[in-house]
Amino acid sequence: MTSLAAQPFAEDNGPLSPWWMRAVLIVMAFGFAGLVTITLLAYRNAPPVPEQVLGATGNTVFTGDDVREGQTVFLKYGLMANGSIWGHGAYLGPDYSAEALHRMGEHAAQSIALQRFGRAFVALSAVEQAAVTGEAAAVLKTNRYDAATLSLRFTDAQAAAYTQQVAHWTAYFHEPARN
User: Fold this and answer.
1) β-strand partners of 141
2) What is the pLDDT of residue 170?
3) DSSP string of the chain?
4) 111-128 burial code (b ≥16 CB/10 A, e <16)
5) Can you tell me the distance from the alpha carbon of 112 to that of 140, in angstroms, rounded to the nearest whole number?
6) Pairing outcome for strands 151-153 and 52-54
7) What is the pTM (predicted TM-score) of this model?
8) Which of 7-11, 84-88, 115-119 comes out lowest in average pLDDT?
C-alpha cells in the first residue's frame, strides 16, 4: 500500500510557462542596465585629480603623477580591504586616510591656535579650543580646487601637515625590521 504523503501534491502540467523565461530576461536586463548606469555615474562624478597641488606661497607640494602613482600601488597590492575608504571600517589594517585627515586637522588646529592666540592648542581654554576646532574644520572643508588651472591650493597648515605625514610614513616604512 502506498502512503498518501508520498504522492505528488499536484499534477505536473508539463514545461514552464514561456513568461517565466521572459521575466528572468527582463529582470536581468534591468539589473545590468542599472549596473552600467551606476558605473557611468561613478566615473562621471569622480572627484578630479589635480595636476598640481600648490602651497599657499605657490610652491608645488605634490603633483597629479604622485596621486596616480599612489593609486597604482594601492591597486597593485590589493589594498582595497586594508584599512578603509574614507572611514568605512578598518578590517585588515590601519586606516591611513582617516589617520592622515586626523593629523592634518590637528596640525591645522595647532597652526590656527598659534596664529590667533599665540599659544599651543592644548594651552587654550575650552571656548578658545572650540573656536579653533571650528575654524580648522572650515579650513579643511573649503574646496580650493581650480578647474581652470587643474590645481588645488593648500593652506600653509595643510602643506605643512602633508610634509609632516610624508616624513612620518617614510621613516616608518624605512625602519629596519624589529625582532
Assistant:
1) none
2) 85
3) ---GGGS-SS---SSPPHHHHHHHHHHHHHHHHHHHHHHHHHHHTSPP--SEEE-TTS-EEEEHHHHHHHHHHHHHTTGGGSS-SSSS--SSS--HHHHHHHHHHHHHHHHHHHHHHSS-GGGS-HHHHHHHHHHHHHHHHS--EETTTTEEE--HHHHHHHHHHHHHHHHHHTSPPP-
4) bbbeeebeeebeebeeee
5) 12
6) parallel
7) 0.66
8) 84-88
